[in-house]
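Exercise: predict the fold of this chain.
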Amino acid sequence: MEKFETVVEIPQKVTVTLKKYMIHVEGPLGKTYKNFKKIPVSIEVKDKTILVKAQGTRKRDYAILHTASSILKNLCEGVVGGYTFKMKIVYAHFPITVKTKDNQVLVENFQGERAPRVAKIHGNTKVVSKGDDLILTGPVLTDVSQTAAEIELKTKVKGKDHRVFLDGLYIYSKAKGIEK
């Protein structure tokens, strides 16, 4: 018989509050929240721990329990250390330039196109272009990874053989901690 509850440790300098289904996590790098209304687990915040209990005893409930605890761990680790994704700018002929404007990433001169391709920056993710690298950093893993995924999708080559036309921006490194 497996245990259908887990305990997530809250790191130092992190405060976690629970209001109905909303978990608010605040740390040195900022604050974030997550809605657990649609995830069937019960959550209690006590002292420096978060107790997560499954609502059933099936294999599915066990899987959902560990998904919820993983989400909570990522939120707590993110506001302390943050996350860094690195993307490589790849082009064969037309040099691609990447700029940020407001909460958008503009990919200009992609395959010689006149109009820039636009991807949205999620949450408070920072996007910095250094040479042929694009560095995405932020305290929320889902925001950083969603921004990277959207940039990668926006620079997808359509209507041509993708084995020959390799232009685009590709994720090549994912790491915990914010790199400079």
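Check your answer against the key: The first helix runs from residue 59 to 80.
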